[in-house]
Amino acid sequence: MDKFRMMFQFLQANQESFMNGICGIMALASAQMYSVFEFSCPCMPEYNYIYGIGLLIIPPIWFFLLGFVLNNNVSVLAEEWKRPIGKRHKDPTILRYMFSSIAQRSLIAPAVWVSVSLMDGKSFLCAFSINLDIEKFGNYSVMNGLTETDKLKLLARIPCEKLFEHQEIREAASRYIKCISQACGWMFLLMITLTAFLIRAIRPCFSQAAFLKTKYWSHYIDVERKMFDEACKDHAKSFAKVCIHQYFENISGEMQTLHHHRSTGKDDSDDREEDKRSDEEKLMGIRAQDDMNKVLWNWHTCKPPLALRKEQMEGENNGKLNGNAKGAANGLVNGHTHEVAKKEWAVYYSKV
What we know:
The protein is mainly α. The chain has helices spanning 2-13, 15-36, 48-70, 73-82, 92-106, 108-120, 122-128, 148-156, 167-202, 208-251, 253-262, 266-283, 289-301, and strands at 310-312, 344-346.
């Protein structure tokens, strides 16, 4: 279990590298899926085009959506986009940066699928075989005496080797369409490569400071969300521990007294006191369910501004974090709290 925990922590600490690895795996998976995929053109005029074009479009869309599903930053982006402004303004450039980062990674696997499909040419042949002028590929007498419907049916059978009788005509037509498909594939790769080159080359021409600011705060939003989740888990663990201890103390006072008489070791008593103090500190004065619900609600509706300053807490701290928040920025409410000595607190403001 410890090994899995260490691996999970490593993936969290190296999330960008992990997501790049996921995108690479998806790209390889798309190419592998196409290689094992059994291409079966219906060889019917009504369905050839739908099947061929659908094979070029539907799987890339699925890979693109799968890339969004596997990216953890999607929930961060949605949360930042939908949250109320409160005391922290939302920067649209940060949201655009996060979306573009997710979209760029998600486009890798679809691009690989489209490239492999065009290079192979089967879907292109299936989609456009009925548009061929068969007179260019050999003995056109096979079309004599056929109605327009019969001609379309004959042309639709070109992708199917066993259904088309004239193999020479079929081979010439197949080579012609696959040549066009491969040309489209190379143009597609060239367009993608040129676009990526322009993005990387033009980006330094703009304000690098603005880009660094956007990148920094997008990382901050992700890190803040993770640390808030960890703080909630620690508080929930301490809250449950203290609640269970109080429960057993209330219903079995005699057993608790007997337990104290039996424990003669001073070190054990000191350890218990230290653990109890540690749990009390993690509770941060929040000792009621309604208080915790309001803390979480205020965090969502009114996140604190982003500006740090040091502040010595002397005497009473006006209840900023221990009981008299009155809906203040840090989100605690009245009641169910007691004073907890604090040495130093950080107040957040931001112009971002």
